[in-house]
Amino acid sequence: MSIRTAVLPVAGFGSRVLPMTKSIPKELLPVVDRPALQYVVDEALQAGVEHIVFVTGRNKGAIEDYFDMAYELEASLAGKESKAEILKQVQATRLPAGSASFVRQQEPLGLGHAIWCARDIVGNEPFAVLLPDVIIKNETSCLAQMVQAYDKVGGNIIAVDPVPEERVSSYGVITPVKRDGRLIEMSGMVEKPPREKAPSNLAITGRYILQGEIFELLADQGKGAGGEIQLTDSMARLMEIQKFYAYEFEGAPYDCGSKAGYFQAVLAHALDHPEIGAQAKDMVRAALA
Length: 289
Prior knowledge:
The chain is α/β, with parallel strands linked by helices. 33% of the residues lie in helices and 25% in strands.
């Protein structure tokens, strides 16, 4: 069965990048000329996703507005010939009618609980989860690469990226069993292990393809790390009865949920931007001179 639905949990406060997120949802922080969330949505659409479920919270209404039609703005731009290209860019942010749903996570009970909130829309089908804090830069989207692998092996797939061994204790990493190119059969996950005990340096990177049975496990999942309902705890239970794979994707990930990662994302996308890339390179050279 193809991956038709993606769940994007966007209810978080963005506490790691305060005070920027005091009045702006962290997902709408700009990365050059579009919000970070736009890159993640584009990644899902490029992978063939037909319906996106946004799991929102209080003060996140701007996200729904962003992907809607802005009547007054578009009418104003349409009346100016010089703004034709900008109008096209604005119109491209709309999601097709009926292709998005917005559900509320009323309490901050953890990532697992946020995903569970989407259960009635997703149903029992396999689905994707994309964490909006992470932008992955590549011509072929990370999720599209994962879907290609899923079409061959099925099961559940987690995106991973190798990190330097001295930094492995800052990440959740997988326990690999057998590798076939970029696809890796796995037997477990370890959260932030000491370097000397880490089963690998393959860090979990915020992209998942999961079977619908995960919702049954999330329904009775007890609280885990941080006193929250953790997705990884239910994934570990699902791993006991279903195949799990990791996929070492091609691309550069940027953690926009941290100040340094957000700056890296802005810089990388500015340097590669078709309109301002040359100027950005000149600015970087001048700053380093």
